């Protein structure tokens, strides 16, 4: 099916997504694992997120890029935003909570899930605005972040950096921007942006991140063999321009619809990811801490050894206000 033949937000009605209007959510595999006591996401190790209490959602299932490594079906991103009746930020926040509770409700009867952990999961404390699409296409994204904060939920926003003016107004708990190429040719062949000025906007976004004082910033790169694993010094130049708190480098995973665009050899193993990370680090002396989670094929470059979000430290007021504290 070509993009021109798609007349609606296909993925919102996909069986794997639960949705209310344009808000969609899906259970992350690590959320299910954490509920059963079978491990937590690398974001717990790096940043302190409790995986069983994290919502994975998006306020818009549409993207303005066609990355070759994306596990989503690009056809579902081709509808026109002018046809969407936008919910206000409070409605999106409430829909996200409602969808998460519906998605996890079945775990309440699972003998492998302790009752206290299930009840905690029913009161999410984190939201990853990253499920699908490009969140900055939602016209009230800064207000949505505030709506989650008003509900005492931390926000982890993932963007492709094509809307620098929007991101300048967003102050999530942690802001991730994808940098999946360090030169224009690789960007065009790997990211395949819909808009002609996407590369220039990404560079502008790096400058926006450099001005962020309160918001923790992360640059993240999906590494794909044969596509974008070259010139580590160029990546370092991009990264230094944004002056991020952290840099994540993660292997492409051969899953979902990406299998129709790439072969399995495109997926680097963890040793290759670490080797490339070390080569980038040679040009980033301020980021002298390297952490890794081999099972997730991901590395982290940091300026500091302690990389957890301060309010997610176990003795913080954030957890003291937890409705389940002391149960």
Describe this structure in words.
By secondary structure, the chain is of the alpha/beta class. The protein is built from eleven helices and ten strands. It has helices spanning 29-35, 42-47, 89-104, 115-121, 141-150, 164-168, 184-190, 198-210, 232-242, 270-281, 317-320; strands at residues 18-20, 23-25, 54-58, 126-129, 154-159, 174-178, 216-223, 246-251, 289-293, 298-302. It has a ten-stranded mixed β-sheet. α9 packs across α10 (270-281). The longest helix is centred in the N-terminal third of the chain and has 16 residues, at 89-104. Residues 1-11 have low confidence and may be disordered.
Quick summary:
This protein has helices at 29-35, 42-47, 89-104, 115-121, 141-150, 164-168, 184-190, 198-210, 232-242, 270-281, 317-320; strands at 18-20, 23-25, 54-58, 126-129, 154-159, 174-178, 216-223, 246-251, 289-293, 298-302.
Radius of gyration: 19 Å
Strand element count = 10
Strand percentage, roughly? Answer: 15-25%
Our count of helices gives 11
Which labels suit this protein?
327 residues; alpha/beta; ten-stranded mixed beta sheet; 11 helices; 10 strands; disordered N terminus
SSE inventory with pairings:
Elements: E1 18-20, E2 23-25, H1 29-35, H2 42-47, E3 54-58, H3 89-104, H4 115-121, E4 126-129, H5 141-150, E5 154-159, H6 164-168, E6 174-178, H7 184-190, H8 198-210, E7 216-223, H9 232-242, E8 246-251, H10 270-281, E9 289-293, E10 298-302, H11 317-320
Parallel strand pairs: 3-4, 4-5, 5-6, 6-7, 7-8
Antiparallel strand pairs: 1-2, 2-3, 8-10, 9-10
